[in-house]
Amino acid sequence: MSEVLEKVSLEIDRLRDEMVNTLIELIKIPAISPDYGGEGEYDKAQKLLEIIKDWPFDRVEVYEAPDERAKNGVRPSILAYYYGEEGEKSPRLWILTHLDVVPPGDLSKWTVTEPFKPVVKDGKVYGRGSEDNGQSLVASLYAVRAMMNLGIRPKRTVILAFVSDEETGSHYGVEWLIKNHPELFRKDDLVLVPDGGNEDGTFIEVAEKSILWFKLKVRGKQVHASMPDKGLNAHRVALDLAYHLDKLLHEKYNKKDELFEPPESTFEPTMVQNPADSPNIAPGEHEVVFDCRVLPDYSLDDILNDVKALADEVKERHKREIEGKVLPEIDVEILQRLDAPAPTDPNSEIVVLLKEAIKKLRGKEAKVGGIGGGTFAAFFRKLGVPAVVWATLDETAHQPNEYAKIDNMVEDAKVMAALALL
Length: 422
Description:
CATH superfamily of the largest domain: Zn peptidases
Number of helices: 10
Helix content: 25-40%
Shape: elongated
CATH topology of the largest domain: Aminopeptidase
Strand content: 25-35%
GO molecular function: acetylornithine deacetylase activity; metal ion binding
Order of helices and strands: HHHEEEEEHEHEEEEHEEEEHEEEHEHEEH
Protein name: ArgE/DapE-related deacylase
CATH class of the largest domain: Alpha Beta
Low-confidence stretches: none
Largest sheet: 6 strands, mixed
Distance between the termini: 10 Å
Oligomer: single chain
Number of strands: 20
Number of domains: 2
Cofactor: Co(2+); Zn(2+)
């Protein structure tokens, strides 16, 4: 290990307690998307700006995507620049984390603490957003803070990006920044998204599956369950459609690619809803949501065409005319779609650097692969900018009793610093 990297690593160790306190302060502030009934990220962004206001960043910029549903009508993203040894001419490293968190879910399952009342226990910080994405957000901050404290300018300018709206599609976050401020990004930038990984920090994600969320909306005619012949039970139609669609998608799109874990495309029915609030109602409406994570070999348009064709078959199978109206009606609504871009080259500079940093600091060989989850690394890959997803995670994200392991946060900060220094 180089002498400079060793000094920075020791300084990060010294900052451990401050890192924990910063993470605690950020977890206390819910940053839930308006899509989930929250106010957005404004308060959390303000807290972060307050934390770093006296830090010697060379530049701090705030970008506000308009969203009338959110607090103060905006979804903020913060960019904090710490210039490299050649000033603004230095090559650049982006480290992107997100401010938003998912809702807590069933509060009765939070047994260690309440979601937004963080506690430290057994070397872990518990709370919603602790691991996803607070752990990496704080790690990136203190990778830079350690260099600042020592008066060290890295080889590469570090751009810390703290963005909104990752959990619900990035429409008001990275996607908005790329669309509205393309001047921010350069083809030769290196990009790290520390929002996925494994327990020992040896997995580097270079590829993602396509993502497709869609809702099947079935309309029949609601009647009393004792007289089903007078209506059309939308629930039965939806069950027929969901069962045969699940079977079709798994059988037709069954290719395996060992780069990914799991190696095949996945098609999961995840949510159902209908207005029946009594056992004796045959509902006239029913909705089913599918979450599909599709290998890049397949076209999402082909999948959607198959969904619509099967919906037509099911409509024909249950077809009835009631009060002059032909039923059932079935609509397919796309909730989210992200067509997977080409993977990051496993021999690209960011991958090579990250492998080298992990080897130097941990003595471990990292491997590259693909995942089914979506991250905003995909937006950079679409631009032709190589991006990797990496962190050391116990994978408690989105779960009750989510936690960040303090050792992971501290050790990941050292790797992030190494990427800027090597």
